[in-house]
Amino acid sequence: MIHLWQALTPELQGVIIKAIEIVGVLIAVVLAVAFLTLAERKVIGYMQTRLGPNRVTLFGIPFTGGIGQPFADVVKLLLKEIIVPANADRVLFLIAPLIAVTPAFATFAAVPFSPRFVLADIDAGLLYILALTSMGVYGIILSGWATNSKYALLGAMRSAAQIVAYEIAMGFALVGVVMASRSLNLSDIVIAQQGRLGWNVLWLPPLALVYFISGVAETNRAPFDVAEGESEIVAGYHVEYSGAAFATLFALPEYANMILISTLTSVLFFGGWLSPWDGWLPADSWLTQPSFLWLFAKVVFFLFVFLWLRATFPRYRYDQIMRLGWKVFIPVTLIWIGVEAVLAYDRIGPWHR
Q1: Which of 72, 271, 274, 281 could staple 285 via S-S, CB 3.0–4.6 A?
Q2: CA 230 to CA 78: how far, in whole Å?
Q3: Do residues 268 and 174 touch, judged by C-beta distance below 8 A?
Q4: Which tens digits make up the pLDDT trace of 241-292?
Q5: pTM value?
Q6: Would the pLDDT of 24 be above 70?
Q7: Cα–Cα distance between 269 and 350 in angstroms, integer?
Q8: Beta-ladder partners of 114
Q9: Of 252, 250, 247, 201, which Cα lies nearest the Cα of 227?
């Protein structure tokens, strides 16, 4: 095997290594999505003084009650029949889930997981992520329209208007990040946050808050889940989907985008893989060394906040969601960009470099 590998050209070796890395990231994201569904049930269960899933074991291993629940759910969804409504556009009905899930996974290509590991370290990584994250709504709109159901169409229109409102606020929040780091490359943005008081959240707290809450709204998570409001429109844009199509349209993109928003919040505002003790403890201390584990801990915290919000807040009315996006978040981001411009002019904070 070693001789066969050495016989390959360096270009072909690079392609094979990159393909293995891509498959590894995809598998990691899918497994993270599976266990995030379990974590959601357990966390919300404990918040509501109940146990959550605790019966399905992992291959019959003792003391693994509940861990096998995500795998049982996957098997159930894959074995269920995909029913296409009689009056639906069959081609668009089946294509819509793929359009929804593809951007959710492709976005991870530009995310730096550690100082030495990123699938595509492109200079305009932030623009790439903005472009892809705004494409997932097309799958939602197509699913609502192709189903030929009034409930699905209402949910799709709600989701489209909601994403337009909060996408603008997220874009303005990222303008502040670019001003602070002077780069669109995500790795450079993390490196620019090195040192004591270097994290962007310390200088851009309103932008960090707006970005994360807008991310919650972008993923249609509670309390912004009016696109699938059971009390008004049954289940919204995915009301007619079942089986693997339901898992591809609803479960995978939603939970993958939760992981993505948590990762981007950590990278853009909380130093990514950088240690929280960077600049506070001696540089040779293991607590100050950059590592994927720091990024992992930050992502887990923000995912917990996602679940905490769902267990705590009731669903907002649709007019309240639109008012928050257009009349609060966008003005706040514009005002703070002006404040940031003054700080940069006076060379205060990260702009003194």
Answers
A1: 281
A2: 24
A3: yes
A4: 777 777 766 778 888 999 999 999 999 999 999 998 887 888 788 888 888 9
A5: 0.91
A6: yes
A7: 13
A8: 117
A9: 250
